[in-house]
Queue: 2 jobs
Job 1
Amino acid sequence: MRPFTYARAASAEEALASHTGNAFYLGGGTNLVDLMRLGVAEPERLVDVTRLPYGTVEEEPDGGLAIGAAVRNSDLAAHDAVRRRFPMLAQAVLAGASGQIRNMATVGGNLLQRTRCPYFQDVTKPCNKRSPGTGCPAIEGDHGNLAILGHSHDCVATHPSDMAVALAALDARVRVRGGEGERVVPLVGRGPEPLYRLPGNEPQRDTTLEPGDLITGVEVDPLPMPSRYRKVRERASFAFALVSVGAALDVVDGTVQESRVALGGVAHQPWRAWRMEDRLRGAPATEEAFIRAAEAELEAAKPLRDNTYKVRLARNLIVRTLAELAAEQGEDR
């Protein structure tokens, strides 16, 4: 680990002013410190932002939430409004890492964690995400747990966050403080430039943030339908997703009124299943309809030699989760 300087910011203005040169913001440090130990991240300066006033979850009058970037993951999962109104989000947070890490990790840091691709984390290997232009050995090498959607010839890495998948399904928006003031951007989206981006020919850029930009919070609108998060992994705990799904479904008289579906473990960012949602609107809430919609979404998949299994796994996980949500609503009537 190379020497670095340390500053603790007392305000957002002070944090922005302190972020000069090769600087990194420090929240819980559960990902950044690991990358520093591996030699992947070599900041010249750390700006501690844990004392900034972004550590609360506020309930909005309309039933939405304003989640501060410094909220600890464990506190978010335990918050009463999150558990009652947004069970998918609470379940996603609890599916990630260990209890000790959740006690340290922050919402803002969770959204910005880097990929766990083995080539990215091994500085003895080439990696376009870590060192642009050196190549992507994962394409022909160890890619069994890497991307099947949205990847490029330059990068097949996946985003590791469980929380981000649930927030993508919730149409979350991210508050960002930069040199020109505060702005709000969608986490993922079809419209204005969202936070996350696909690798293209610049895989080193995970997000659309500019140097020095500080995430201050996340906004979530009310969710007027049941939701669930499900994760498939290689072991029962402390493992990243092979495939995960965050889903919400509104069924009236056996017909899908609206659905929200986002996938994890399959792309460079949480993958919002827009095509599937469009296809399900107005469709019967049956397993057959869920299968057809899932397969339509996964037509865009381009699996590699050793991760073809993810296509079927994703389809089955989507169908099972939506079928359970539909069945619950049928039982409630």
Job 2
Amino acid sequence: MTKPPLTLYLAAPRGFCAGVDRAIKIVEMALGKWGAPVYVRHEIVHNKYVVDDLRAKGAVFVEELDECPDDRPVIFSAHGVPKSVPAEAASRQMVYVDATCPLVSKVHIEAERHAANGLQIIMIGHAGHPETVGTMGQLPDGDVLLVETPEDVAHVKVRDPARLAFVTQTTLSVDDTADIVTALQTRFPDITGPHKEDICYATTNRQEAVKAMAEKAEAMLVVGAPNSSNSKRLVEVGARAGCSYSQLVQRAADIDWRALEGITTMGITAGASAPEVLINEVIDAFRDRYDVTVEQVETAQENVEFKVPRVLREPA
């Protein structure tokens, strides 16, 4: 039986970013240096496949520091942690390695600098997301106010409208964030913004590639985890850019083939914490059912690399 033809558009860039690469490498190098078990506070990156793979190598994932013994190394996830976490680790004399993405750390430093200058911070982010919790936890309670939507901006209660600054989560939708920034600047004309926007290069690049791909594809799949902020934003960006069917899948097994019946063009991308092996698994699933032609839709090239912390570069 002949397979129906399908043009598969593959977004570039897609998948792992430099911060995720570095975080995974940190866990692997820690296991190499100190042996198993190495504890990791929170999922190192938001991807079940990656977490399961590291767990098989000897990483133990916990939600809080009090689940870790004092005598084993602990790693903090790429999303960043509140200041209280390394402080507690230090007070317990634990060996700890911070795998916070350097672009998230940049936002932390920015927030502290504004606070030192007497400004109250408004953070654009998602409540409860570990990155938001970590950034807000760099400063005392009340110093950072959270807004999630333009509507929130109208209701936020500030100490002094003339002494404000804003920061953002690094994995937000570029377009949604622009709307919230406009609302902030309209209500608080004196508000100080970041020198260079906080949304990271990888998030921005992946969203741009999706926009370019959405014009060509009848349907789009984003390979990523349901708790991955940047992956969920890619689904939304695809739908908004005109792709009538835009869905998140963790793996090939999650594909709803009935919903895709009759399509001739398909877009595929992946969130910043999804490994290429899962993208290939999805492509192979399409090859099983269709006569596939793959076309890359490239909108940027990435060559960013972040060094691992010095403690891991030194011998045990």
